[in-house]
Structure to design on (80 residues):
């Protein structure tokens, strides 16, 4: 869960929605990464037109994907 300053729109807090741990920021810039999910549910779901978003710390992400029947596709990149 990301929180932004209402006046400057600067990122002031990132909390893992799963475990509640606050991730470290330095001057509004995350110094540890998170998995951010943002999805808009369509008409063929029970969540029609709802937008859901959340953030997971790396540890919670690892625990969740470990339970997947098919693991996420992982590719190396040369630039971030």
């Amino acid at each position: 869960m990301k929180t932004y300053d209402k006046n400057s729109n600067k990122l002031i807090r990132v909390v893992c929605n799963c475990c509640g741990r606050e991730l470290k920021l330095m001057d509004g810039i995350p110094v540890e990464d998170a998995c951010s999910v943002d999805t808009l549910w369509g008409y063929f779901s029970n969540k029609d037109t709802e937008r859901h978003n959340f953030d997971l710390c790396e540890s919670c992400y690892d625990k969740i994907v470990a339970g997947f029947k098919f693991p996420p596709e992982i590719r190396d990149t040369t630039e971030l």
